[in-house]
Amino acid sequence: MRVFVSNTLYGTVERITGNVSIDDNGDRNADYSLLDMDPVTGEFEVVANYFGNTKRYEQVDGKSIRWAGGLDRAPPDTPKCGFDNSKCPPDKPFPEYGIVIIVLDTSS
Question: Which residue, 22, 42, 38, is CA-closest to 30?
Fold first, then answer.
C-alpha cells in the first residue's frame, strides 16, 4: 500500500480501471461520462465526458443532450414561481375596487 500511495500521491498512474490521478489533498480526480437515453431505441449512450484531472468537459461529436420537455438547454435550477409558487406575484397585485376606495377616500 505504501508504494501505491507514494507513486500516486500528487500525480497520475495507469491502473486496471484507467488513469488514476490524485490532487494536492490526496483526493482522486474522478472522470465521468454523461449518458442520455435515445428515445427511439431506449438505450443509453454517452453524450459527453468530464475529465477530473484536467477539469475538461467534452461533448461527443454528433451527440447532444435531450432535455426534458423538448428544451434545447438545461432547465432552470428553480421554477419561475418557485417550488411552492411563493415567488409569483398575484394575478392582480391590487384590486380595482381598492383604487376606487382610495380615490373616494382622498377626495373628501
Answer: 22
Per DSSP, 69 falls in state G
Closest Cα to residue 50, out of 59, 41, 37? 59
Helix/strand/coil percent split, the chain, to 5: 20, 30, 55
CB neighbours (10 Å) of residue 36? 16
In the chain, alpha helices (H): 2-8, 96-106
Domains of the chain: 29-106 (3.40.50.2300)
For residue 53, the SS3 value is coil
20 compared with 73, residue with greater pLDDT: 73
Instruction: Taking the CA atoms of 4, 5, 6 and 12 in sequence, report the sign of the dihedral they define.
Output: positive
pTM of the predicted model as reported, rounded to 2 decimal places: 0.57
22, 8 Cβ separation under 8 angstroms: yes
C-alpha cell at 70: 423538448
Do 47 and 64 touch, CB atoms closer than 8 A? yes
